[in-house]
Amino acid sequence: HTCQIQEALQGRIRLEILLRLRVTKKSAVCRRYGQMEQEKGLGQSDINWRDELKKRLETEKELAFLREEKRKKDELARLRDQKNELIRQKQKEELERLREEKKRRASELKQQKMEELEFLREEKRKKDEAARRRAEEKERVDKEREDLKLLLQERDARKELKILKDLVLQSQVLELREQVEAKKQQKVIHDLKLQIERQELEQKLELKQEIKRLRNIGDDLAGKRHELEEGIFLKKEYETWGVVSRKPDWTTVTSWSKMTGCFNWMSNGERKSKSSYLHYDPVPFGHGGDRVAFFMMWEGRQFVLKHFKKFIRRRIEAENWMMINLHETANEFAKKFNYVGASKKKLRYIQAIMISDDSGEYWMAEEYLPGDHIKWNNNGKYVKSLDEGGLTAQAFSHFTWVSSGKSQLIVDIQGVKQADSYILTDPAIHTVDKRWASDLNYGENGIKEFFECHKCNDICRAMGLERHLAQPHDLIHVDPSASVMRI
């Protein structure tokens, strides 16, 4: 339809252009004829003039028509250019629209792919999470089964142990009966032997029942059990040894008794162990309220070997480990005390080692300290004269209470004085929560007893230690601007 309109428009424009060219041509001829008459100065008749005028008019009309045709042709060219420009513009817009549509579709396709990928990732994550949960559940079930298996094995082992003990007891009873039957011929001896063996059997049974009952009671009756066992053990063993305080003769080590076992100690909060052997003097050189002391040599180093007067194995092992941990804890407090630098001399606790021999006995070993052994305070109200060592010991005990957040107090400060330090051993501790289960741990009462006889000295004031409510009031002026020590 557009092409038909365009062809009709072009035909009409050509016709108008031809007419205008004719008029234009006639007008030009007329003007030229008038110029010629003026130049020649000739006169003509009216008829010839009219004919010439007509010709000129026709020529002018043709010229006008030709001009109009040219104008229309230019207009048509302009319209054609405008049309082409519009077509190009529409094509450009259409192309731009198609590009935008293509981009939009590509973006939608990309977004759809990303959503699908995210969906797949989420599905994979859910599957992995479900697999992980199944694995954890399986691991938990396996662990529970393993724990149950271990518990069953432990129960069976306890049953077997009980059966073995019953069998041993029965065998002992049978042996006694056989001995009684073998001596029936001698009536007096038979009656006496039977009475003695019955008493021994009853004592053994009562002793076993007492030991079992005391083990089940716990920490509340530990003191009573300690008194019973210590009395029996001392009566059987160490009272007959004749303990004599003396200096060690390290040249006779080769003649001492040899013992092999497992050595256990603490290092940086971790338990260490090593199998080795040692030599020790079988005759003790001293004893205290809890242990007996022997001289010992191990790997060329001099030690003091100690053994608890108690004879129950579990109690000895637990108390030895507690003593090792207590040495480690006291040494950590000593390092902090040395770091503050309020005292001229440093403090150091020697390392404690627990030894279990082949027979199942547990021993305690500490480094041998040559020199005069001094005890500056104990776990009660005892305080030695306040010389330099006494002041340092009292300040150190006060420091441990502050440094532990008022929950622990290291006491029983004892050891050997050296040129620039004090080498300490055998600490005791009072705790608020009774975490250190020991006969020497008096808890809050022990802390209170210490501070009732403690007066802060220059070292305490240099560290800015906080006072305890039970401390006696002194008249020494304390600078209120002194900063409180923070650990």
Overall shape = elongated
Radius of gyration: 59 Å
Write out the strand line-up for the largest beta sheet, numbering strands in chain order.
1-2-4-5-8-7
Fraction of residues in helix: 55-70%
| Mean pLDDT, all residues | 78
General description of the model:
With 487 residues, the chain is an alpha+beta fold. Helices cover 58% and strands 16% of the residues. The protein has helices at residues 2-40, 46-182, 187-217, 222-236, 313-340, 388-403, 443-452, 458-463; strands at residues 257-267, 270-280, 286-287, 291-298, 301-308, 346-349, 352-357, 362-367, 373-375, 408-411, 414-417, 421-425, 428-431. Strands 1-2-4-5-8-7 form a six-stranded antiparallel beta barrel. The chain has a four-stranded mixed sheet with strand order 6-12-11-9. A hairpin with a 2-residue loop joins β1 and β2. The two termini are 101 Å apart. The relative contact order is 0.05. Residues 222-242 and 475-487 have low confidence and may be disordered.
